[in-house]
Amino acid sequence: SQQGEEDPQALSIQEGENATMNCSYKTSINNLQWYRQNSGRGLVHLILIRSNEREKHSGRLRVTLDTSKKSSSLLITASRAADTASYFCATDEGYQKVTFGTGTKLQVIP
Amino acid sequence: DAGVIQSPRHEVTEMGQEVTLRCKPISGHNSLFWYRQTMMRGLELLIYFNNNVPIDDSGMPEDRFSAKMPNASFSTLKIQPSEPRDSAVYFCASSYSRYEQYFGPGTRLTVT
């Protein structure tokens, strides 16, 4: 089964609104990463948060991590049409193994 | 750096034929990953190498699939014989240690 499960599976918002995606996982992790995938392309790394961090920012991205609940959230503020993509969380369980979740498909309507 | 390079970008083959996918990782990266992505199963890790050594191949679907990394700058994923259910996009990714992975553009495989 997937280590990471994203929620919601799909999200449609208007340009300028904020988008929040959640990721739940099952086992202990060293870090958690978020990736973006544009249609027909490979995944692109967005941000990494370590297991001893609770929040991290990068531009319009804000990631939180709650290890007690085994969950993470990705917030994209002031969304743009170019943010339309699928977003994946990836959990690092150690031993070089990173497992990707099922993804959230985000559509930002201009 | 050109990023992770995969070839071919598209492959159409008939059932039973051998298929070889190729990957050139980013220079200096010591880990290489092969993934398969389909609508039904999402993104699946097939195998990953560290310092050219296969570490975990538990995701390889069956004996028809094999992967090699003869040196730090080249890896292949081979399917022999291919079947229609192997149709998917195959991604190669590389990384340094356990941090962010850099994905190639993928190979779209269609087996008829």
Average pLDDT rating of chain B: 94
Percent helix among the residues of chain B? under 10%
Report the sheet-strand fraction of chain B: over 45%
Termini of chain A, distance in Å? 36 Å
Q: What is the string of helix and strand elements of chain A?
A: EEEEEEEEEEE
Principal-axis shape of chain B: globular
Please tell me the overall pLDDT of chain A: 91
Total helices of chain B: the number is 0
Describe the structure.
The complex is a heterodimer of chains A (110) and B (112). With 110 residues, chain A is mainly β. Helix content of chain A is 0%, strand content 59%. Chain A is built from no helices and eleven strands. Chain A has strands spanning 5-7, 10-14, 19-24, 31-37, 43-50, 55-58, 61-66, 71-76, 85-94, 97-100, 104-109. In chain A, a hairpin with a 5-residue loop joins strand 4 and strand 5 (43-50). The termini of chain A are far apart. Chain B contains no helices and eleven strands.
Summarize the entry for a quick read.
The complex is a heterodimer of chains A (110) and B (112). Chain A is mainly beta and 110 residues long.
Write the layout of secondary structure elements.
The complex is a heterodimer of chains A (110) and B (112).
Chain A: E1 5-7, E2 10-14, E3 19-24, E4 31-37, E5 43-50, E6 55-58, E7 61-66, E8 71-76, E9 85-94, E10 97-100, E11 104-109
Parallel strand pairs in A: 2-11
Antiparallel strand pairs in A: 1-3, 3-8, 4-5, 4-9, 6-7, 7-8, 9-10, 9-11
Chain B: E1 5-7, E2 10-13, E3 19-24, E4 31-38, E5 42-50, E6 53-56, E7 65-71, E8 74-79, E9 88-95, E10 102-103, E11 107-111
Parallel strand pairs in B: 2-11
Antiparallel strand pairs in B: 1-3, 3-8, 4-5, 4-9, 5-6, 7-8, 9-10, 9-11
Supply the key terms.
heterodimer, A: 110 residues, 6-stranded mixed β-sheet, 59% strand, B: 112 residues, mainly beta, 7-stranded mixed β-sheet, 11 strands
